[in-house]
Amino acid sequence: MSEFILEKIFEKVDNLPPFPKTAQRALELLREDEVDYKSLEEIVKSDPAIAANFLKLVNSAAFSLPQKVDSLLKAFMLLGVDQIKFILLASVSGKYFSKDLTGYGLSAEDIWLHSIVCGIAAEEIAHELKLSVEKKESLYIASILHDLGKIVLDLYTNLEEKRFHQISEENPKWDFMQIEWLALGVDHGMVGGYLLKRWKFPEEIYFAVRAHHDPDLMVQSKVSAIVALSNIIVSLLGITGGVDAFNYKVPENLLEVSGLDSKTIEKILPRIYRRTLLLGRLFV
Ligand SMILES: [Fe+2]
Ligand SMILES: [Fe+2]
């Protein structure tokens, strides 16, 4: 049944801008051993919305640059490759998260902030676990775009927030994934994963997005476990994904599969919290 519903939704999805070529080309350049920052500047500048978001984010205290910058090139020089990638992906997501998602009870700013902070949580975890450059890139993409499916469902179905509340009241023991299935015949993780697969992202990435609320799937790889865990951390900080308010099942071995223990979580939580506060000033 879900395949049929997905097909119906994706018949309309061509209106959604594809993953920007700008970001794809910039990421390719950033994989080179010697990065050509002048060319990178040209590429990022070619998309004014991404360039503006990049400068906005880079000047937020969350990324702790020693000085304010008004040029992309200067920012690149002051940031490491890893941070450039992260901020670039966060800037790209701003292009998608630019409309209120009324069905999910989210303003455009809420969902963008939720996505960036999820990326920050994943970034801090990746740093703590000393993950490889490739794993970090997959994690950044999957965590920042994990709720992409909400945009698609909000745009292309007749979704109303009150319908979610009504189902939840009638079925108080259900988690939000079950509620979404009754309301829409699909859940936003599945839709986001399907879209990223269509955009030809690596399986590691679209699987993590697909799995981020599914307790059986999320523990099948380290990347999917970390994305799911980062989303939980963001919700614990009170930056929820809207109407779902983190009403989901969490498997017992999530921490273990992520490669973390509760002591490490206690260590990194304040860092994520502090960076979120610094970032939050951008959105008020
Ligand atoms: Fe989600
Ligand atoms: Fe989320």
TrEMBL record:
Query: Boundaries of each HDOD domain copy?
Result: 16-215
Q: Which InterPro entries match?
A: HD/PDEase_dom, HDOD, RNase_Y/CdgJ
Q: Which SUPFAM superfamilies match?
A: HD-domain/PDEase-like
- Per the record, the domain of life is Bacteria
The name under which this protein is listed is HDOD domain-containing protein
- Per the UniProt record, the source organism is Caldimicrobium thiodismutans
